[in-house]
Each structure stands twice: as structure tokens, then as C-alpha cells.
Amino acid sequence: MSSQAPELPVLEKEKNESTSSVDKVERDSEAAPEVDPAFERRTMWKVDLYVLPVLTFVYSFSLIDRINLGAAYAAGMGKALGLTVGARYSIVTCMYFVPYILLQLPGNLVLRHFGVRNWLTFLTLAWGSVQLGMGFVKSWQGLLATRFMLGVFEAPFFPALLWLLSSWYKRHELQKRIAAFYLLAVTIGGISPLLAYGLSLLEGKHNIAGWRWIFIVEGSITIGTAVLAFLMLPVFPEQNKFLTKEETAFVVKRLNEDRGDVTPDEVTFKKVLHHLSDWTIWAYGFMFTCAAMPNYVQSYFTPLILAGMGYDRKGTLLLSAPPYGPAIPLTMAVAYFSDKYKHRSSFIFGLALMCILGNGLVAWHPNNKVRYLGVFITNAGNSGTIPTVLSYASNNVVGQSKRSVQTALTVALGAIGGILAATCFRAKDAPRYIPGLAATLAAQGILIILLAVLTLRHMYWNKRSREGKLAEPLEGQEGFYYTL
Fold it and tell me: Which helix (H) or strand (E) segment is 257 a member of?
């Protein structure tokens, strides 16, 4: 148990250029009268209908453009570019994650400087162009370069969306929104193998291979979504234009009552180092590493695993989509009860056990039908784990600068799960990929250990706070308690 205070003394908040407008919104919120439940439901429903669909739609194309490599490989790219030689496919897969990890935090730190819509629109247009270019590469080295650039432009996107999403909701209503956002995006992403199969049927059209059409068409669609991003992407609550003055004041008021951090504090190098000195945000990030690994295995290697079961190209691509189905009701049920009881850790533990069971079946069961069932179980458990871990981390952070660091670090460390998946699933281990599946099992064990350490730590500091034994409130926020 740490012998230090739960949080270093809170640095004095520095006002940025938008302070005056934020202060005005906060003054309005303080003066706002108490509202009835019907007004609250109507306002938050309005927020949900505006914020969630747009974020989900744009992110889904980020996800599709990231995970379509396996489908393109199964559709003929592997042989065409010589990716079947040695570890080339794993190297190409890994290359995406190098800039993706390194650029998460810098990308989040400039979000407010450039503006939400300007920054995220540029990123969407840029990676869509790269995705389109992947359809014209002539060698595996060219594919390697485009995957690197894809990682550059996609890196700041997901943490920015998480930060933006968490800025609109109270701590214990967040997981339902993250789960809905994630599930809708994954569901759209889940049709990626079906879309890829359909596009692969364009084989030979205009003398272009079917696997090339996957990148060309999907990249073109992403470029089109950049227009939607510029017109429709939501901004931070105090900057929004879609709510009335009274609704905005209400949203700001309820957020300040919940965690008191609507006012943005300037992000400085000193402050970033201060936040990075908190070991707990690293622990959340490594939990996400472990949670993300089965997700990347599902995305990149399920077509290869299914091919190892004896399915042809058509069967491999079509059977990659159904395992996403059962994940939807389970993940939403977990989110509902997790928010209702304001509790995360027990759900994460149970979902990690599901991943262990599913991976074990895929790795060692002799019957291919049961192994395919294991893919369903793994995906259901993993789809529930990811939003729960993200909510667990977000719930236990106070302050916008710290939240920007925490979301970026969590997603960056989560990308290590992609590297682990790419390096552990080696071509020489086909068709069963036992070492890779065993490594995925080990990751779930590490996740459970980190969860236990954090939960015991949070219980300890919550108990001391309730007993009045702390010189300062937890996370520098009066009335704050860690979510277990």
C-alpha cells in the first residue's frame, strides 16, 4: 500500500484563452435554479442524440481502416505482396502501433489549441487518404510505410474522442455511453469482413485486384466522413451551440457538482510530468493493454485462425463477423448494472475470466466447432471489458489536464496489446497459433492482478478519507471517492 498521499498537491489552475467564456457559462450554471427531472431527461437525451451518433460513426471508420488488414490478407494481399514470407505480416501489423503509441499524448495536448472540429477533421481526412493509397502499393515495404502513416494520423483520434465523451457526462452515467459508443462502432466494424468480402468480389474490375478494392473503397468513404466530422462533431460542453443557454448551464452545473472540473486548466510541460508521476494512471493503461490484446487478436488473426480450421476464403471472411453479435447485449447489460451500482472491478474480473475460457477453447479444444464457439466467448468477454476498464480509469481522475493525459496514456498503452498480438501470432505457429493464444491468456491474468492492486489501493484511501484521516481531499476534490 502506498505510503504517500493519494494525490500530489493540486497545481494552481492556469487560465487559458477561453477562460472568460467558460467563467460566463459557470456563472450562468451557478445562478440556474434547480430543475425538474423531466428537464434533466430531456436535456441529456438531447446530448445523447447529438454526441453519441456522430462520434460513433466517425470512429467506426477509424476502426475499419485499422483492422481491415486481416481481411485483405485473406483476400489475396498476402500472396500478392509476399507477406507469407517469414514475419513480414507481423512486421506490417506492428508498424502501425509505433507512431500510434508515441503520438497519443502529443495529439491530445493540442486538441484545445487547434479546436475539436479542425483537429479531428484533419486527422480523418489524412488517414482516409493514406488508406486509399494502400490500395496502390506495389510491395510489402510500401504497405509498411502506409501502415506507419496510418498510425501517425489515427493516434490522436481515439483518446480525443474519449476525453470529449467523458467531458459531457457524470462519472457514473459514463459507462453506458462508452459502451454504446464502443459497441456501435464495433458493430459497424464487425461488418468489415462482410464488406471486405463484397469488395473482394470486384476482383479484376479495371484490372485492379480484389484486395486493393478493399482499401480504395473504404479509404474513399473515410475521406467523405471528414466532411461530416467538420460539420457535425461535438465540442466541449462550455463551447457547444446545439443546447440552449439554460441547458448548457444545467449540464455544466451537474458536471461541477459531480467532479468539479469543467473549467479547463492550461496544459503545461510541468503539469504533464506531474500527472505522469501518478502510478495509478499507468496501471489503468496497462490494464487496457491486457484488455486490448484479445481485441486485436480478434480483429487481425481471427481470419487466419479460421483458415487454419479448414475454411476457404469465403468462409473465413463470412465467419469472422458473427462473433460480434452476442457481445452487444452482454456489454450493454454490464454497462447498465455497472453504472447503476457505481462499481467496476467485479465486472472486469468476470469478463476477464470469460476471455480466459474462450481463448482456452480456441487454443486447445480438438473440435473446430467448439473452437469457433470460443471465438464468440472471447469476443463477448472482451467487448465488455474494454468500456468497463475505460470507465474505471476515467471515473478515478479529476481535472481536465489530468484527464487529457490519462486518456492518451491509456489508449497508447492499449496499443501495446496490438504489438503483442502481432508478435505473438507468428506464421510458423499456424494453424493453431498456440503461443499467441497462451500469451493472450497470460495478459488476462495480469489484468486481474493489476485490478486487484488498484481496487485494494482505492479501498484503503476511501476508508481513510471517510474517517477524516487525510490532510487533503482525494484527487484534490472535496467529496470525491474512488470508484471501485
Answer: helix 245-258
Q: What is the pLDDT of residue 22?
A: 52
Contact (CB, 8 A) for 302 and 320: yes
Q: What are phi and psi of 467, to 5 degrees?
A: -85, 0
All cell numbers assigned to 156: 490522436
Residue 20 inside a domain? The answer is no
Q: Three-state DSSP class for 10? A: coil
CA–CA separation, 306 vs 294, rounded Å?
A: 16
Entry pTM: 0.79
Over the stretch 405-429, which tens digit does the pLDDT of each residue have? 999 899 889 888 888 887 887 777 8
Concatenated DSSP letters of 176-222: HHHHHHHHHHHHHHHTHHHHHHHHHTTTTGGG--HHHHHHHHHHHHH
* DSSP code at position 172: G
- The string of pLDDT tens digits covering residues 253-300 is 888 888 777 777 777 888 889 999 999 999 999 999 999 998 888 777
DSSP, residue by residue, 134-160: HTT--SHHHHHHHHHHHHHHHTTHHHH
Across 24-57, b (16+ Cβ under 10 Å) vs e yields ebbebbeebeebeeeeeeebbeebeebbbebbbb
Amino acid occupying residue 65: D
C-alpha count within 13 angstroms, C-beta hemisphere, residue 206: 6
- Which set of grid coordinates corresponds to residue 261? 472540473
137 domain-assigned: yes
Q: pLDDT digits over 372-396, tens only?
A: 999 999 989 988 999 999 999 999 9
Residue 228 lies in a domain: yes
Quick check: 107 and 407 in contact, CB under 8 A?
no
Task: Specify the number of domains making up the chain.
Answer: 1
What are φ and ψ of residue 236, in 5° steps? -70, 155
Q: How far apart are the first and last CA of the chain?
A: 16
Pairwise CA distance, residues 83 & 422, whole Å: 13
Chain Cα centroid distance, residue 210 = 30
Q: Which amino acid is at 463?
A: K
H or E segment to which residue 405 belongs: helix 400-424
Pick from 46, 223, 268, 251: which is nearest to 132 by CA? Answer: 223
Q: 406 with 391: CB under 8 angstroms?
A: no
Residue 173: CA count within 13 A, CB half-sphere: 13
Residue 1 within any structural domain of the chain: no
Tell me which residue has cell 468539479.
260
**Residue 109: in which H helix or E strand, if any?**
helix 104-109
- The CATH number of whichever domain residue 141 belongs to comes to 1.20.1250.20
Domain span including residue 432: 28-469
- Amino acid at residue number 381: G
Is 317 in contact with 197 (CB distance < 8 Å)? yes
